[in-house]
Amino acid sequence: MSDQGFLPWVCIPGFMLDETLWDEMKSCLPVSQSVCCASLSKGENIETMAENIAAFAPKRFVLIGFSLGGFVARALAARYPQRVAALVLIASSLREDTPEQHKAKLDTLEIQQHLHFRGLGNKAIMQTLRPDNQNNMDLIARIRGMSARLGFEVLKRQSLLNRATPTDQKISCPTLVIAAAQDQMRSLNEAQELQEFIPQASLKVINNCGHMIPLEQPEVLAQTISNWINLL
């Protein structure tokens, strides 16, 4: 086993998701594997979110970021190369929001600010799941519950984040990019762009899975990350 195999994992959730996103994956890991689950509930920008996580993270760790969490993880890894031993980016991207995506988020905020926010809507959640899970009401309720707990103010902050990648961002640690074969939110091209952006990064595609890899394929995800770390 590599030295990285003994290090704690720090896991960052995605857009309007909380620390419980990782519960199923954690249950698939040995009890000896330490997992610290971060929050994106505070911070006005990607850099501040990264600093917030660095402040509580162990001295040296494996960093895992899902979707929006991948943007934050890259910022953290670039700023603290001496602390991040390895980086895993799950269903993430280098791309910032398109004008259409930005407008859609602003429209949602405009509607939601006049309502009592009860979490993300079914239509938005269904897009994050593989086709045969899109009527899985337990999964939909689970995702909505996370967003409802975070609330409207977090929705507003996360929706307005600038996701543009700094031109000088450099990642020097071993990196694994994980994509899902049936992801309707992030394309395989985006995963390949990430792989090409980071020196010597590896790419793994998980089959039978939509965007919500930690919820739809937690066992495969845990095994994929563990196997990769043990080969470093």
Characterize the structure shown.
The protein has 232 residues and is an alpha/beta fold. The protein is built from 10 helices and 6 strands; from the N terminus they run E-H-E-H-E-H-E-H-H-H-H-E-H-E-H-H. The protein has a 6-stranded parallel β-sheet, with helices on both faces. Helix 2 (46-56) crosses helix 3 and helix 4 runs antiparallel to helix 7 (152-159). It is globular and about 50 Å long. The termini are close together. The model has no long low-confidence stretch (mean pLDDT 95).
Low-confidence stretches: none
**Number of E strands:** 6
What gap, in angstroms, lies between the N and C termini?
A: 8 Å
Order of adjacent strands in the largest pleated sheet: 2-1-3-4-5-6
Estimate the helix proportion, in percent.
40-55%
Number of helices: 10
Q: Report strand %.
A: 5-15%
Give, in order, the helices and strands. Answer: EHEHEHEHHHHEHEHH
* SS-based class: alpha/beta
The major pleated sheet works out as: 6 strands, parallel
Integer average pLDDT: 95
Tertiary shape: globular
Rg from alpha-carbon coordinates: 17 Å
List keywords for this structure.
42% helix, 232 residues, globular, alpha/beta, 6-stranded parallel β-sheet
In brief:
By secondary structure, the protein is an alpha/beta fold.
Topology:
Blueprint: E1 9-12, H1 23-27, E2 35-37, H2 46-56, E3 61-66, H3 68-79, E4 84-90, H4 99-112, H5 122-126, H6 137-150, H7 152-159, E5 175-180, H8 188-197, E6 202-206, H9 213-216, H10 218-231
Parallel strand pairs: 1-2, 1-3, 3-4, 4-5, 5-6
Helix pairs in contact: 2-3, 4-7
